[in-house]
Amino acid sequence: MLNSLSGRLLVLTTVFVMLAEVLIFVPSIARFREDYMLQRLERAQIASLALLADDMLDPELEAELLENAEVFNVVLRRDAVRQLMLSSEMPQAISQTFDLRRATPLTLIGDALMRLFKPENEVIRVIGAPVRDAGLLIEITMETAPMRMAMIDYGIRILILSAVISAITATLLFLTIRAMFLKPVKRVVGHIQRYAEAPEDARRIIEPEAGVTELREAEVALRTLQTELTQALKQKERLAQLGSAVSKISHDLRNILSTAQLFTDRIETSEDPAVKRLAPKLVGSITRAVHLCESTLAFGKAEEPGPTLTVVPLADLLEEVIENERLAVQDHDITLRSEIAPGLKVRADPEHLYRILSNLTRNARQALMAVGKGGEIVLRASETDSSWNIEVIDTGPGLPPKALTHLYKPFQGGTRKEGSGLGLAIAAELVRGHGGELKLVGSDASGTCFSVCLPKGDSAR
Question: What range(s) does the Histidine kinase domain occupy (predicted)?
Fold first, then answer.
């Protein structure tokens, strides 16, 4: 019970209400003590009226008046004369004097607490103003034991009443908070549990119903989270299905390309100059296609191998990328060129690096072809003491907002309507495999620039 939110709320509510009652109890008991002494002053004044009516009182009558007033003697000051009106024998000497005419609230509270915690019976003098201005002051002597017992009895009744009020208040407050807050919270928890059983089921997404603003905001946030998670799970399922299909296609395509590779071996022996010039490129393209199919199959098994690092002459690799893309822009006013220092070499996997630059160059070429105004693509390479940097720059229209938001995300970061967005995702993954970083340097109406940064590390040469 105490481990639950409702149980702790009930206990805390009771404690706080009791604390408030205790704070009320202290001044209440001080006021009771003051009223008790004022009543004794008033009784003493009434008793002294009998003496004013008859100067001689029977001793028995005087003792009865003092007993009824619960005092030992009464002194009344009238017309600047101090008169002992009634008197009897006191059991002990006077220990303290209290003047109620000049007592402050703090003084009354302090005196009351002192009396509660001081059980010894004492005789005290109490001074006050007579009622109805029947003199200048009235003074009495009285015992403290009856007053202390009356204060304790009053305090017990106050504490019992406070406990009852605390219990009723705590219960009402608990029931109210339970209805307004705890039940909606439990409803949200129930929704979360049901959603966790089948997160792919969109029917289990919570619908905000809470009337309390904060709880409704929590439900709205939960609905957004559940919606995004459901969509992500569906996307993951579709990707898994697509991966399975691609693996099957890659398996069959590898067999077909292997057969084509046998034919290209014979083409290389041809004496035709045009065939001799194009045959190596055809062989290289088919070899890469076979390697890509094998990599796809390995990736489908979550066993894609890491890069095999070798020293690669970068100028030859850039020229090969540009040469293959030139075949696709023969009928378009698009130029491709490279800017690289002669003899620059990088340490990388040549196949992975070719795929990285080919994907980036192809994306740039497709962006230029989409606007139909021509343009230029530049592959620029340089090195520093710590890294090699390759930039792919185009003069295209820049990336659309959606592509910028979902950059490097498969099936979401495509720049064209029919694009899949896989090119950048693959390039980014391959660059990370080298310990490097693929960065978007800039993209606006004047063009786009991607940078491939490959660290040299301890293996740089």
Answer: 248-458
Q: Pick from 343, 381, 357: which is nearest to 461 by CA?
A: 343
Q: Check residue 23 and report its DSSP letter.
A: H
pLDDT digits (tens, 9 = 90+) for 210-224: 777 777 888 888 888
Distance CA 172, CA 2 (A): 18
DSSP character string of 27-66? HHHHHHHHHHHHHHHHHHHHHHHHHHH-S---HHHHHHHH
Total number of domains in the chain = 3
Pairing label, strands 123-128, 345-348: unpaired
CA 114 to chain centroid, in Å, comes to: 51
Residue range 372-415, pLDDT digits in tens: 888 999 999 999 999 999 999 999 888 888 778 778 776 554 55
Domain boundary among 170, 187, 215: 170
Instruction: Kindly state the helix (H) or strand (E) to which residue 358 belongs, with its residue range.
Output: helix 350-371
121 and 132 together in one domain: yes
- Residue 459's pLDDT band (cuts 50, 70, 90): very low
Place of tokens 């378009």: 332
Which pTM value belongs to this model?
Answer: 0.43
- Contact yes or no for 449/461 (Cβ under 8 A): no
Query: Which residue has tokens 């070429």?
Result: 365
314 and 300 within one domain: no
Tell which residue, 127, 123, 57, 126, has the closest CA to residue 86.
57
Is 180 a domain residue? no
